[in-house]
Amino acid sequence: MMDFLMNFPFITIVLSLFSAVVAFAFKGSRARFVTYFLLLAGAVMSCFVLAYNLSSETGYFVYRMGHYDAPIGNEISAGLLEPFFVLIFEVVMLLSVLGGKRRIFSDIPEEKQKLFYVMINLCHAALAALCYTNDIFTAYVFVEICTIASCSLLMASDKGKSLIAATRYMIFSLIGSGFLLIGIILIYSITGHLLFTNLYEAITLLWRDGSYNFPLTVAIGLIVSGLCVKSGLFPFHFWMPDTYGTATPAASAILSGVISKGYIFLLFKIIFRVIGFDVFLATGVQNILFVFGILGMVVGSVSAIRTKNIKFMIAFSSAAQIGYIYMGLGLGTRTALVASLFQIISHSLTKSMLFISAGGLCDAAGGKQDFASLRSCAHKNKVAGAVFLAGALSMVGVPIFAGFIPKLLFAASAFEGGAKMFFVLIALAVSTMLNVMYFMRTALTVYYPLGAENGAQAKTRACASFAVCTIVFIALNIAVGLNSQPISSLLEKGIELFMNVR
Amino acid sequence: MELLIPIFRMILLISLLVCAVATALSKKPMTMIIIFTAYSIIMSVVWVLLRSPDLAITEAAVGAGVTGVLFFLTLRKLHLIDKDKEEELRAANESKEEKNDEK
Amino acid sequence: MMKNKFSEKFSAWLSGEVDLTEKIAEEKRTEAPSRISKKEEAEETKIIRSLEKKEIKLSFKEYKVLSVVFCVILIGILTATVYFLPTFASSDVPAVNEVYEHYVAQGRDETGAVNTVAGMILDYRAFDTLGESFVLFTATCAVLILMDDKHKKPKKEMHETVNYSRDPIVKSMAAILIPLILVFGAYILVNGHLSPGGGFSGGAILGAGFILYAMVYGDEQALKVLSERKIKVVTICSLSFYCLAKSYSFFTGNEFNGVHSVISAGTPGDILSGGLIMPLNIAVGLVVCCTMYSFYMLFKRGRMN
Amino acid sequence: MNLLENYEELVAMILFVIGFTMLVFSKNLLKKIIGLNIMDTGVYLFLASMGYIKDALTPIVPAEGEVNPMDYINPIPSGLVLTGIVVSVSVSALTLALCVRLYKKYHTLDLDEMYMHMKKEEE
């Protein structure tokens, strides 16, 4: 009976694809409830898969997609990390969609709202597939679904600004997809396999043999850079502010909190399960990632200080936070990897919360996003202000919030990092300083005491779903911050599985 | 016969390159798209030479057919086809006038 | 003095009025902090805007230089990669391995499809193909988001389309060609497991046939034959069928579920063989056909009715 | 191990770079889309030429009798390219639709110019 739980990853993927079709068939707002239900069901199923893997001996299983075993057929696999990240993504998506509900109604033309929810279903399916897949070409196909669906989330707002942002985002994404595809094909042409397990064996052999080392390095570089472009690492972060700044809050929360993290998770999975971490370290790609990660941390924060638009500021801060993740990958020690994965979780939770609450603040300020008009708007929408404050504290890295743990872990891992230690510590210090600066400024602006001239304005009532969602967000954030020990040990076990069990 | 096929393959590949460069360099959207359609058709012949008739059929129907139609419809929506036509008409009229003048 | 200036600057930045980097605006402000007339304010914003514009241009320029360098490096790297790759057209490449041998040697008996490619994409690696048909569905929805002006008033087209159905040459050619194309498409679709082709090629040909029909006889006539409702129903049914059929085969593919597939491969070479391959081919073909046709209609008319 | 023998792959890579250059450089959105298509076909050509074996046949096996794998080309690249072609047509349809909408709004196909127009509109 317990074995039936092994069907759940595949059911999650196919059911959410199916529900996209069902939502497309429905009329009006019923599509919304299909989406809520599916995200909830997906979250429950991921919980079951996680529990199953925690209780089983190996903590890992492979599920055949069809009647044939590994090199012939297609398969999906789930260890500890996959269901856990799918669970996080589903929870964040559900909360963002619920919290941004009011803005979805006001930002998106009525007849297009149904399609917006269809796209969220497709994003969900694609993300689940990206996490669970055990086949590199399947990963490419679902990356494309994810790209098109996330671009559609953007352009559903139907304003000139968001269309331009969508075009830019699309072009960058397509560059990324092109790199990813040619990398995958280079790897196929020198190994002759597409499934992760067989690829790993073939690549390890080839690397020891040494005859195809150059094409292999190029292929690894292309795959890594393709996914970096898609997730917005430093030199390719140009699309971020426009994209996140112009979309409806729910869409920007999903894009920054979930979709770019999905690509990063795929990158982790490919590095550990396809390339093998030893080969990856031997190619030297991690040093490049380290440099760009650190540059991204600093440049993103500086840009965030310079901008005048609250959503652009959060977007640039996203670029900085993604720099942290890549820095951890570049450091390459066990603690740093755990810190990176933890950073994915905490950033996913915090950034979506910030975007949703920024949406509420902008509403209170009359729909404007620049700091001058945002002044003292937190008094008008108390819930949004409080949530924004909590998010800012988490971003800055105040203890008890989720954002504190990865910074601590990064600092701890720096001492294992040898020559890189110096740079890590400096970058952490500078980036945290800059973080404090721009979040303090925003908090001071939105909590500016009400003057005589604008004190008389009516308070906007926060809608119930917004309040509930944001409170759940804060609760989750603090829960993750306080219970960091079990989570980081789970992550460590997951990385162990990633590296050693095939 | 044995020798001809590699030569044919070479010719096709070179024309693929020529088409690609020509699309990159052409200025008029109309020319660009026509060359691109030609590129797709050459590509489908290359697929046949690579013994993949499935791909040849799909490329001919999708690459040359549907994508080409979509590009032309886009041009029509952007009124870029008519601009070309107008310019041609104007040029024709001018040459006619010149001829009339000569007479 | 310096300290004072900085703290002033800082407090202004804190309250969201200026950026730390905008020196000119800052100096203007400090020159006349007591009274800022509207005119000056306007000038100030102008300067800021022009600065912003310059910045944008500058960043684009830097970006271009970077990408030139990047492209040149890319050509070099890729050429070097090709140099190291296995030789073209030899049978001694890594891709010729046990997977390839299994597909070609045992594919016919295991899947029942004589066309190995169809057997591979619809049976061995069916998950990819499921994703692929959903790429098409996603794209249709995305184009619908962008192009569907159903709820706005239909505008009169500026350039009235030529009615080709009155043209004797076009009309008689279309009368011969369209049935031929459609029959050819259907043949490719249904024979996907026996001969080259299959869902994608057949569907694209069918779609092209319908597009030709719409071009010759006009959109209204075409929409009478293949209306929005029909397209929607066909797409939804095909995709649902695809999902269910593949879920069944994925579910039965794992022994621990205790259910065995009742679908047999049949006799290879027969038209009714290959298990689920033919129905799946038809479903994929219908999805592709509807997608192509609705792309055309949405691009041409801006709506589907 | 030779560039001249691998001419098919070389052409594919050059097509990829041409397409990539068009996608990144050109200001015209239509050209970007065509560049995208050329880039994709370059990749597909590369993949399909990996599967080609000299003197081998199309992978459609006889209905009866033993099958010798070496008589047929590799079917895997064909299947992957088939998937890829459909993906690239969907992506280019979406991008073309974006292009039409943007042109209707800003009357230009240059992304930078659109950006300028947008800034002006905001002011």
Strand content of chain C: under 5%
SS elements, strand count of chain C:
0
Would you tell me the structural class of the helices and strands of chain D?
A: mainly alpha
- Structural class per helix/strand content of chain C? mainly alpha
Count every helix of chain D, treating DSSP H or I runs of 4 or more residues as helices: 4
Low-confidence stretches of chain C: 20-37
Q: Give the tally of β-strands of chain D.
A: 0
Report on this model:
The complex is a heterotetramer of chains A (502), B (103), C (305) and D (123). Chain A has helices at residues 8-25, 30-55, 81-99, 101-107, 110-132, 136-155, 160-191, 196-209, 213-231, 239-246, 249-275, 277-283, 285-306, 310-331, 334-364, 371-374, 382-396, 404-414, 421-446, 464-482, 484-500, and strands at residues 61-65, 74-78. Chain A has 502 residues and is mainly α. Chain A has a domain at 284-502. Chain A has a two-stranded antiparallel ribbon. In chain A, a hairpin with an 8-residue loop joins strand 1 (61-65) and strand 2. In chain A, helix 8 packs across helix 11 (249-275). Chain A is globular, with a radius of gyration of 22 Å. The model of chain A has no long low-confidence stretch (mean pLDDT 86). By secondary structure, chain C is mostly helical. Chain C has 2 domains: 2-83; 125-301, no CATH class. The longest helix of chain C has 47 residues, at 38-84. Chain C is extended. Chain D has helices at residues 7-25, 29-51, 75-106, 111-122. Classes of the chains: A mainly alpha (502), B mainly alpha (103), C mainly alpha (305), D mainly alpha (123). Chains A and C meet through helix 1, strand 1, helix 5, helix 6 and helix 7 of A and helix 3, helix 4, helix 6 and helix 10 of C.
List the helices and strands and how they pair.
The complex is a heterotetramer of chains A (502), B (103), C (305) and D (123).
Chain A: H1 8-25, H2 30-55, E1 61-65, E2 74-78, H3 81-99, H4 101-107, H5 110-132, H6 136-155, H7 160-191, H8 196-209, H9 213-231, H10 239-246, H11 249-275, H12 277-283, H13 285-306, H14 310-331, H15 334-364, H16 371-374, H17 382-396, H18 404-414, H19 421-446, H20 464-482, H21 484-500
Helix pairs in contact in A: 1-2, 1-5, 2-3, 2-5, 3-5, 3-11, 3-15, 3-20, 5-6, 5-11, 6-7, 6-11, 7-9, 7-10, 8-11, 9-11, 10-11, 10-14, 11-12, 11-15, 13-14, 13-19, 14-15, 14-19, 15-17, 15-18, 15-20, 15-21, 17-19, 17-20, 18-19
Chain B: H1 4-25, H2 29-49, H3 53-77, H4 80-102
Helix pairs in contact in B: 1-2, 2-3
Chain C: H1 2-14, H2 23-31, H3 38-84, H4 98-111, H5 116-124, H6 126-147, H7 168-190, H8 199-217, H9 219-225, H10 228-252, H11 277-301
Helix pairs in contact in C: 4-5, 5-6, 6-10, 6-11, 7-8, 8-9, 8-11, 10-11
